[in-house]
Amino acid sequence: MAATTRFMTVEEFRKLPEDQGPVYHELRHGELVPVTRPKLKHSLIQGHLCDYLKRISPLGSYTQIEIAFRPLAEHELWVADVAHLSAARFQQADPEDNFHGAPDMVIEVLSPSNTVAEMYDREKLCLENGAKEFWVVDPDRSQVKVSTPDGKTLTWREGQEIPLPLFGAEATVKVDDIFRY
Does residue 52 sit in helix, strand or coil? Predict the structure, then answer.
């Protein structure tokens, strides 16, 4: 898929041929952005987190890796490394479209290709459009930054447990377990 500088809608983006090979594309602010497919460590962390969250997910909710969503309907089509939708929001989703708005929980596992500006933009747009939590998982530092729409951000490190209020009052995940792959 060739990159373009023309402002593109989601409908135009969907008409492009499927990506193949080591790079796929997202639509960010109306522009095609190449995204390098993850390496094994990234995929292991993604899968491990997703498996854990699925085990403790409330009935009727949806947790998955690589969920495509539209934080803003017209010019954005992103893919979350791991995402969680509450049962109520999952029931409202159109199975013939991508999820509109941001999932309740968006988890991004940092890759060498991610920039600080990109992560800040993703966090801001997700928290402004439905996300209750936005996580940045940093494999190099073995830490997880969790931000919420009220402007609070906490960084969790080795030896600590992250509360998971979207999964129940007592639900937690140990930071050490996230990086055990």
Answer: helix
For residue 1, tell me if it sits in a domain. no
Strand order in the sheet with 133-138: 99-100, 62-70, 78-85, 105-109, 133-138, 143-147, 153-156
**Domain annotation covers residue 84:** yes
Q: With respect to residue 92, please indicate whether it lies within any of the assigned structural domains.
A: yes
Answer yes or no: is 105 within a domain.
yes
The alpha-carbon radius of gyration of the chain (Å, integer) is: 16
Residue 9 pLDDT exceeds 60:
yes
pLDDT tens string 76-89: 899 999 999 999 99
- What pLDDT does residue 3 have? 53
What is the span of the domain harbouring residue 51? 10-178
